[in-house]
Amino acid sequence: MNFLIIDDDIFLTSKIKYLFEKNKSINLIKIVNSYVDFLDEISIIEIYDVILLDINLWIKGKNWTDLIKIIRNKNLLIPIIIISWNDDIWYIDLFFNLWANDYIIKPFRFEELLVRVLKWFKNWFYNNSNFNNNLISYNWLIYDINKNSFNFNWSELILTKKSKYLLSIFFSYNEKFLSKDFLTYKLFWNYEFIETDNIRIYIYRLKSSLKKFNIDWWIKNIRGEWYIFQK
Q1: Phi/psi of residue 101, each to 5°?
Q2: Which residues contact 70 (CB under 8 A, 6 or more apart)?
Q3: Which of 2, 63, 67, 178 shows its CA 20 to 30 Å from the CA of 44?
């Protein structure tokens, strides 16, 4: 999972990052402490799987309805979790009407926040995969989203953290064309320092691991620029 945190509370965001980095499902965490920095993320907003948004962040000349609309104009499906001290029902209802997915009132338990974030990460798989009891299946290849592990015919695949996330992307977009640039952005946070051809190396490594089970051919390259995960 790629997780974007938008909050100007450096102490809080550091603690959240520390807690979440221990979780096996986390690939990347990016912290944004200002509106200006947030704007830098808009063009690549689709690399993130969940956004945590503190509506108490100070924004000169902007309000939070504008910011959420900016996100939704770019991506209708990405889960947005609001955190705030404000517990007024009218206020909470306002953000749900703006298509926020969840609203957490401060102070909150960090363990609860992790549970909710992972729940919204799973939501994409619920909508796009055969999902049963936290297990996602695709032609006998099974992804345990809680353990962040893969099995084929009940034999575990030994994969690096990056390979697991890359395979989870293919799972969530199975039988859909994915561009080389999209996969590069999803896999790397500091994407500006990564050559897009590097994604070929990671796909090669993943396919090498899948080859042991004779399912490496499920990942197909189309005209050098596109990939599809399809049996």
Answers
A1: -90, -25
A2: 42
A3: 63
At 44, list the tokens. Answer: 């690549």
Question: What does the alpha-carbon distance between residue 153 and residue 65 come to, in Å, rounded to a whole number?
Answer: 48
CB burial string 96-114: b at 16+ within 10 A, e below: eebebbbbbeeeeeeeebb
How do residues 130-181 score in pLDDT, each as one tens digit?
A: 566 678 888 889 988 878 899 998 899 999 988 999 999 998 888 899 998 8
CA distances from 58 to 6, 20, 55 (A): 11, 25, 8
Decide: residue 59, CB within 10 A, 0-12 exposed, 13-18 middle, 19+ buried. Answer: middle
Characterize the bridge pairing of strands 226-229 and 135-138.
unpaired
Structure tokens at 46: 């689709």
Distance CA 71, CA 48 (A): 11
Domains, the chain, with CATH or none: 2-126 (3.40.50.2300), 130-229 (1.10.10.10)
Cα–Cα nearest to 168, from 194, 195, 141, 205? 141
Secondary structure E strands in the chain:
2-6, 28-32, 50-54, 80-84, 102-105, 130-132, 135-138, 141-144, 149-152, 155-156, 178-179, 219-222, 226-229
Angle of CA points 152, 153, 157, to nearest 5°: 30
Question: Tens of pLDDT along 168-209?
Answer: 999 888 889 999 888 988 888 655 545 556 888 999 999 999
